Amino acid sequence: MKIIFTFSLVFVLNSFFSQKDFFHIIKLGEKYSLSQLESSIRKADWCGYFHKSERYQLKFDDGSIVELLTISEDFDIKKNLSETCYQSENTKDIGVYKIH
User: Cβ(30)–Cβ(62) under 8 Å?
Assistant: First the structure.
């Protein structure tokens, strides 16, 4: 019982203190794995795609849907981004993204 409690405590503390992502995966498509999608999004430069008040939605060719968080949402990447990376005008993206 103590082992289960210890592992549970470690898991909860790890998820609480781990770095938050600047995106949220809404739907995972059929072509890319979760790790491929997360890795690609983290490596890409999304400066200029963030909105100040509304999440920016990215659609991928396999049906995956990812949202970039807003400036008002609390995420660690905000510390590293300039204010100019956020759009004040809410635009929609009609493009379809591919990972290669």
Answer: yes
Q: How far is Cα 36 from Cα 98, in angstroms, rounded to an integer?
A: 11
Would the CA dihedral through 11, 17, 18, 24 be positive or negative? Answer: positive
Distance CA 68, CA 70 (A): 7
What average pLDDT does range 62-78 have in this prediction? 79
Provide the 3-class DSSP secondary structure of residue 32: coil
Helix, strand, or coil (residue 33)? coil
Give the three-state DSSP class for 40: helix
**What is this structure's pTM?**
0.69
